[in-house]
Write a structure and sequence with these properties.
With about 290 residues, this protein is mostly helical. It has twelve helices and no strands.
Length: about 290
């Protein structure tokens, strides 16, 4: 009875010990694995720290400097090393450092001679422009090459227009010695008959430009006598035209003034036919003013 009870107790104890062993054994295996991994990590960190201290530590003695130079030569390809796959490289796993892979010369030449690995970029196909576009580009290029000449021509043309306009307004850059003599104050203030005498003398001597000047002065005197304008030494033809702006004589006198300025200030030569036409226009204008 006691023996059977003791047997049951021993069997129960054995089961407990077996269960306890089954629980403790995996924990021991896991702790061993962690310890070995920690040892490897610590070893790797110590190696890296030693290498860093090697590069950063300053040499103390000449012997240390020679030792450092020797160690640098050992790690000459350090900066050129590349990491490899840990699972397929036992050398890296055993050394714990980067390893440079070298390609044999034979394999390198084979790869270099392989046509499939030689990539040549194809030159882009040139698209020919239409002939009209090419002609336009050529014209624009030609115009660009002579643009300086065009600018000079435009500048000279503009200067010529300004110069002609100023001459028409009575401005003369270079004064010329005239063969004609301007009428003195007595002739210009001698009334319409005094101007008529000067006109006939100029026509007789072939001085048609001077005769046109006297005709213009005579027309001004006739308009002043009819109180259409007021004569003054400082007044210009533009001033007299502004005085006639609201009268029917504005347009005809403006045309006569334009012809007079072209001939007198513009120094345009006048032949007999041209003078006869202008002479008749002035006579017709002065008759219309007298008959108002």
């Amino acid at each position: 009875m006691i023996t059977s009870s003791y047997r049951h107790i021993m069997q129960g104890s054995a089961r407990c010990w077996l269960l306890l062993a089954g629980l403790i054994l995996p924990m021991l295996l896991l702790a061993q694995s962690v310890d070995s991994s920690a040892a490897l990590i610590q070893q790797y960190m110590d190696t890296a720290a030693a290498e860093d201290s090697f590069y950063t530590a300053a040499p103390v003695e000449d012997t240390a400097g020679r030792h450092e130079e020797q160690e640098v030569k050992t790690h000459y390809f350090w900066d050129r090393q590349r990491p490899l796959n840990i699972d397929s490289t036992e050398e890296w796993w055993s050394s714990g450092s980067l390893v440079e892979r070298k390609i044999p010369v034979k394999i390198f030449n084979q790869l270099k001679a392989d046509k499939d690995l030689q990539y040549h970029k194809k030159a882009p196909k040139e698209v020919e422009a239409p002939w009209l576009l090419r002609a336009l580009v050529n014209v624009l290029g030609f115009m660009d090459s002579i643009r300086v000449i065009l600018y000079i021509g435009l500048g000279c043309g503009l200067a010529l227009l300004i110069f002609n306009f100023m001459r028409q307004q009575g401005f003369r850059l270079f004064k010329k010695q005239w063969n004609e003599t301007l009428p003195d104050a007595a002739a210009e203030t001698g009334g319409s008959e005094g101007y008529e005498k000067q006109i006939q003398d100029a026509i007789a001597n072939g001085r048609f430009r001077m005769a046109v000047r006297y005709l213009h002065l005579q027309a001004l005197y006739v308009m002043a006598a009819r109180q259409l304008i007021t004569l003054g030494k400082d007044k210009t033809n533009a001033d007299y035209l502004r005085g006639l702006l609201k009268t029917p004589w504005y347009q005809p006198f403006a045309r006569l003034t334009r012809d007079y300025e072209y001939i007198w200030y513009g120094e345009m030569p006048v032949n007999t036919e041209q003078f006869d036409q202008i002479h008749g226009q002035f006579r017709q204008f002065m008759r219309s003013v007298d008959n108002q």
